[in-house]
Write a structure and sequence with these properties.
homodimer, about 500 residues, mainly alpha, 3-stranded mixed beta sheet, 23 helices
Chain lengths: ~500, ~500
């Protein structure tokens, strides 16, 4: 009991320091003057170290081990807290402070060199730092202490990395799912490519002022149920969502004056993440349980609101008139159907973040395939760009003309391997629970009513409620009664786009 | 040497934590969602405690005492660091942790109750918390450990409080200065009251959008020499300037759409503070010397830019055309002379923060007189409102009709006594150094050139350079060769307003 109190006290201390760190990072990405960036980095590094040291104190470790041994005597919430901390402890246990410092230095260095390399569109600048990150990831994987249960399913380094981000999901699970996705998505994309369907795109590049896009954003966030009393919206170089603390969830986006549709769907996506964070059971916060949601779960929610809901006819019908009222000049000659079609246009392209709903999965699958080879040591950093380009040609029929739009496009490899697959897993999850939701709710009627509250409530009760306490496999089974599969997602895509492209 | 290194290491730690605290406070005052305020307060309190504990560690105290004993062996900058820390140590030395906690609790409570009281315009709500603050201030004064030199000049509790904010300035110094100010300002105000001069004010309440005021603000800040690479501008409920760290000085203001002139001069004032912080010698930062500038010095700089420079004909001539270009509709029938006169209109009023350059001093003097009586125990909290109202009637010829526009208007008494006099001392200082500046520079020619760089350079070389190393008395003597006096300020006022009001 005393050990539990002690652990919670330290968790509280850590959560306050983390709040400060996240506030400083938010400040840096939104308003901080350039000249102060370096000093601010120092402050952030110091506080991050302080946060790290809270849980890496021997007394805390002692408490975690003591409590883990007695976890069956704890109530459910305390048990989850202890299990999560025990899991974290095992992942980090064999990494010395010096090694942790070196890993973090590698990542910082990789980020700096990647930025330069991308700016210059020159992969050679990034090659060596990337190699250091890869070796670091292999080390992290190999040094992980595994429970007997973990050891039974995590077969190699890449499994051990993936498990950090979407725990319990292994290549044995993903390989057949992703193979099915690759095959059926490529087939669907090829059909679409041959379709004669004409979709208007001329209005998408019309000028929309930042002021107007801000108005649209506020409307969309309200419609979606964002709680402005417990969060804010701001702008930054790259859009993101961050939970600073229990009652402080922040969204940022970047407005491009010649690309208003992109900001609409970025906002739906980030607000999806935010709703998940804002509407988690308050007990999670009381028990310091907020590391349980995996990235795959989080991505399932953001992409549910962005795509399944946000790119549906019903949602477009709901938001189109309001958007038109804000920018009448831009949409006066655009019908609701034309807006809907433009929001769902499929164009195989080079850049993942700009990909449509259909081809997006291919961008993820090819990264997954490359990551497996890289971490297994079968693909060298020298051969990576060629392998990258080859897969783009093969899966998407497009070839990068330079490194910037090719292998250098994403920031993730400056720190993480094993993270990319979660982007596609999110789609598999949300298509499955959308099918369950449709059994409980009349989605069309709800959207027609203008208030999506019932959908959000269903998401709270089924998707959000236990997300921090269950593994992805347990969680999707709990929501849908079924094991994870790819068919729901692929059938959803095939039906929707067969209709749109008149295939 | 080892002790010096240790002290500096700890100063560095503290400065990083303070940077975080100030960033969190800035976040709270600008963007933080309401629902997160309480959590953020907890985080700020925790980090403030951490910052407090850095310098209140026995090893740090040991280092300070060791170094202070050997201060003559240190180079100048190290010596100032040690002296400043020794001074702080003496002020706090006899306050126990429990007492410090109680004092801070008193202040928090007083702030909360004052806010309620002001909202309700009911002094009775604030009376008891105010009494606790007064007792706390008396305790702080009495518990201060004094050096022999301090003891020789700080005669009573109020002297000891004032010295915290404008060190070395005592009632023996201020009484004759403020008596002279009171007499000559009241005389000048009475003459102005009888003047037949008509000054146009109709255009002052014309609507100016926040967007336009933001544009004016950016222009003014650039004109004044604010370094946007090392600082930002934002909006908050109340305007203020804060140095977050060496390269991060932030200004905020509040825009009122029917009161554009007020935001112009708030910006000049806050930018004055900011320039002082941005242009201090970089060695100050290296040696952690930034507690030396007294509030009186700081206020002298902000009011120099706001009033002496900003309300001069030359400065109005410089900025008027640019402002008119931004808001042509508002100023199309307003001449430059009318703008100048409106910026200098004198109206005895109830609210200090809205007071003109002439009567402002009277607001300060009457607070100074009341504070002396209160801290000496000769004026009770029961009798304070009546005493307040009587002085307003006597000095300014106006009577508050309620507590909100009377004794409850300022936030200062929720924490500090001895701070108010610095507002008037700033005027005495800057009028003195303006007279010295005029011997070196042709102000009219500089303003006519459109670039005030030479004025800023003079300020750096004479006013900013040693502000962190000298006491106010040494500092004003160093700049002007003279001891502090009131005549420069009063003569400046008399000349300027005799001309404006054709007295």
């Amino acid at each position: 009991m005393q050990q539990l109190e002690y652990l919670k006290e330290q968790m509280k201390r850590k959560s306050m320091i983390d709040d400060a760190v996240r506030t400083l990072l938010f400040d840096q990405s939104t308003v901080c003057p350039k000249g102060a960036m370096e000093d601010k980095n120092e402050t952030i590094a110091y506080l991050s170290e302080l946060s790290f040291s809270v849980l890496h104190d021997s007394k805390v470790t002692e408490a975690i081990l003591y409590l883990y041994d007695r976890k069956d005597e704890l109530d459910e919430w305390d048990r989850v807290l202890v299990e999560q901390q025990y899991r974290r402890y095992l992942i980090e246990k064999n990494i010395t402070t010096e090694e942790a410092y070196e890993l973090s230095l590698n990542e910082t260095n990789a980020f700096v060199e990647w930025s330069k390399a991308k700016e210059a569109s020159d992969y050679s600048i990034f090659k060596e730092p990337l190699l250091a990150v890869i070796k670091g990831c292999q080390k992290k994987a190999q040094k992980r202490e595994l429970t007997k249960e973990d050891a039974a399913i995590l077969k190699d380094d890449y499994d051990r990395l993936m498990d950090i981000y979407d725990r319990g999901m292994t290549q044995a699970d993903l390989d057949p799912l992703f193979d099915e996705c690759r095959e059926r998505i490529i087939a669907l994309t090829n059909k679409i490519r041959q379709s004669k369907k004409q979709i208007r795109t001329d209005f998408l590049s019309r000028h929309v002022s930042i002021e107007k896009q801000r108005e649209i954003t506020e409307y969309l966030m309200k419609l979606q149920g964002f709680d402005f009393n417990r969060g804010i919206f701001s702008t930054s170089e790259h859009g993101y969502t961050e939970r600073l603390s229990a009652n402080d969830v922040r969204i940022t986006t970047h407005f491009y004056e010649d690309c208003f549709m992109s900001s609409i769907y970025t906002v739906l996506h980030e607000t999806g993440h935010a709703i998940f964070d804002q509407r988690q059971p308050s007990k999670n916060n009381d028990y310091f349980i907020f590391e349980g949601k995996t990235l795959g779960m989080h991505e399932s929610v953001s992409r549910f609101y962005e795509n399944i809901l946000g790119r549906s006819r019903g949602y477009v019908h709901l938001m189109y008139p309001a958007i038109k009222e804000i920018i009448p000049d831009v949409l006066n000659d655009v019908s609701e159907e034309e807006f809907y079609l433009a929001a769902n246009i499929v164009t195989p392209s080079l850049i993942r973040t700009e990909a449509d709903e259909v081809t997006y999965g291919l961008h993820v699958i090819l990264r997954y395939e490359l990551e497996k080879e890289i971490i297994a040591g079968r693909l060298s950093v020298d051969d990576l760009p060629a392998a990258w380009n080859k897969k783009y040609e093969e899966y998407l029929g497009v070839s990068p003309s330079n490194d910037r739009e090719g292998v250098l496009q994403d920031v993730h490899w400056t720190s993480d391997f094993g993270y990319f697959p979660t982007y596609l897993m999110g789609n598999l999850y949300n298509a499955m629970y959308f099918n369950t939701m449709k059994q409980d709710l009349d989605i069309d009627a709800i959207l027609a009513s203008g208030d999506i509250g019932d959908i959000n409530k269903w998401m709270c009760d089924h998707v959000f409620e236990k997300a921090d306490r269950l593994s992805p496999k347990e969680w999707i089974k709990d929501i849908t009664g079924r094991n994870v599969c790819a068919d729901d997602f692929l059938t959803y895509l095939e039906n929707k786009y067969t209709e749109i492209y008149e295939l």
